[in-house]
Amino acid sequence: MAEPGLRERKKRETRTRIADAALRLFADRGFDRTTVAEVAAAADVSVKTVFNYFPAKEDLFFDRSEEIEQSWLQAVADRQPGEGPLAGLRRRSLGRFEDHPGGPTAHFRRVLAGSALLQARGQQMWAVHEDAVAAALASELGELTGQVLAHQVFSVHPLVLRKVEQWTQDGVGDDEVRDRALALVNQAFDLMDRSISNVS
Amino acid sequence: MAEPGLRERKKRETRTRIADAALRLFADRGFDRTTVAEVAAAADVSVKTVFNYFPAKEDLFFDRSEEIEQSWLQAVADRQPGEGPLAGLRRRSLGRFEDHPGGPTAHFRRVLAGSALLQARGQQMWAVHEDAVAAALASELGELTGQVLAHQVFSVHPLVLRKVEQWTQDGVGDDEVRDRALALVNQAFDLMDRSISNVS
């Protein structure tokens, strides 16, 4: 039984090595000007191996897409007795901004800013994640409400990232930025919770 | 007193003629490949005149930006006795999707899709409008709530546009698409209203 475990681990390591090499090249040269052959060379694997792990060049950049969708769905399911349907989603959003108030790494953001193709793909992926969360919420809250709330949940992140950027430009300190970011997340979820709580 | 009215009208006509000529050229050649000199020639005015009306080339595309911001602020103020603070914003959003369920014209969307610069500028403008609405709501609802609700209001439009596109691709008829779009807008505002209504 040790054999498949080792094999899986090796595969994950190779996958990570390729994605890391790709991000470094993309950050240096831009996404559009980097070829898959260059990524393969930098990661010391064949082009065929790269395509085995990443069917499209964009997948090299959004290599954690599936993992992220799973984490959103787990967040919907992550609920203690007595908690409302958004409790896990609130925890996920808070954790996200506790760990990285400024959002993705500078490398990641620079590559994204330089490629309209990646931006379009990113929005498409974000919409797919949102629809998955909407479907998960719909079973409890109905289709329309599930769709609107999923969209509101996914809208919290861009709002917070935009405000964090503003505050940072205004010279607000890191701790204060984090506090404000978390307060904004909490306020958004407080409002959402109240919008679906039964008014008795 | 007739004189200034005529002069104002002439100015508005010139402004519109320049913006219309610009959109036609942008749609034909793309935003990045069109020069201000070409726009001036197509509108039969000097380059200096174009810059008098539109300080930056992007302003030729987003020529209705100020008008749109004013309409958002009027929507916040547009409130009958007994109505909540979001009533006018709901009416504005419903009106928007009653008139044009598919969003901006095909020309406008094609030009926007072809230019990362315009997309960035569009998002920036959208954020400025949102912050103006947030400030207007904050006086009644507090700063955090105003910010979150303004963001939720502005998030309704992208959600509806995305769903309209999906439904249209799925072959749903125009009338049904419009009905669904309006139902989504109403549901979003119902939830927002409930989130700020006093639970007695």
UniProtKB/TrEMBL annotation, chains A, B:
InterPro entries: Homeodomain-like_sf, HTH-type_TetR-like_transc_reg, HTH_TetR. Gene3D superfamilies: Homeodomain-like, Tetracycline Repressor, domain 2. One of its GO terms (molecular function) is transcription cis-regulatory region binding. Residues 35-54 bind DNA. Keywords: DNA-binding, Transcription, Transcription regulation. Residues 12-72 form the HTH tetR-type domain. PANTHER family: HTH-TYPE TRANSCRIPTIONAL REGULATOR BETI (PTHR30055:SF234), HTH-TYPE TRANSCRIPTIONAL REGULATOR RUTR (PTHR30055). This is TetR family transcriptional regulator. It comes from Kribbella soli.
